[in-house]
Amino acid sequence: MNFKIFIQTKPFVIAGPCAVESEAQLLATARGVKAAGAHALRGGAYKPRTSPHSFQGLGEEGLKLLAKARAETGLPVVTEVLDTRDVLLVAEYADIIQIGSRSTQNFPLLKEVAKTKKPVILKRGMAMTVEEWLSAADYILESGHDQIILCERGIRTFETATRHTLDLNVVPLLKERTKLAVMVDPSHGTGRASLVAPMAKAALACGADGLLIEVHADPSHALSDGQQSLDLPAFEKLMKTLLSR
Ligand code: PEP
Ligand code: MN
Is the pTM of this model over 0.85? Predict the structure, then answer.
């Protein structure tokens, strides 16, 4: 994929399930998000789950399914890497490598991912200041690699009515501080499907370049993050409003 052209798409929308669960689930979701106008497909093959008893992802099998979905839809794929030992394998399949919230200060991982020269989505850690986030980006930048998208995904505050508190302040702030592309993930930022569309629109209104939206063809049966995933009709409706802006 051509990163420069990708981030100039205003807004660029990356959509797909939290986790790759099966061929049928991924392909149905991939076809749906493509038809609705998404620019890339997301799906985790390696999942950072709070509990070791939760679904951990399909691993390499999940990466192969992402490659299959890309071949069928033409959408570039975004997937997370958790472990330095998996970086080369993930880089073989991913068009953009996601570094998740729980890994943004895993400095050895940042250095290994930088070596691949693949575009990177660097999510904000859930208790990370902007200074710390930009320093994490410096680990990649100092290797001479600047294909980085910063992704605000909500921070942990005293508020428990929503999963996280989406900090949209950082969007215009990062625009003052850096030239890097800035995107927002209202799915993890709110934790509730009903709040995703309004916060996606708010993110664009304050200057975000792109959005990351969790979409599942059948959210009530999702193995992770179903409560915050849009179904295909809701995603299609959101895309219509976003693209007609
Ligand atoms: C995800 O994108 O599914 C994910 C685990 O996100 P985060 O790292 O923001 O929690
Ligand atoms: Mn998720």
Answer: yes
Distance 98 CA to ligand 1 centre (A): 9
Q: Does ligand 1 have an atom closer than 6 angstroms to the CB of 118?
A: no
Instruction: Say how far apart CA 77 and CA 79 lie, in whole Å.
Output: 7
Q: Which CATH superfamily is domain 3-46+55-243 in?
A: Aldolase class I (3.20.20.70)
| Residue 94 identity | A
Distance (angstroms) between ligand 2 centre and the Cα of 168 equals: 19
Which tens digits make up the pLDDT trace of 164-178?
A: 999 999 999 999 999
Tell whether ligand 1 has an atom less than 6 A from the beta carbon of residue 18.
yes
Quick: pLDDT tens for 123-165: 999 999 999 999 999 999 999 999 999 999 999 999 999 999 9
Cβ of 153 below 6 Å from ligand 1: yes
Question: Residue 19 C-alpha to ligand 2 middle, in angstroms?
Answer: 7
Ligand 1: which atom is nearest the Cα of residue 153?
9
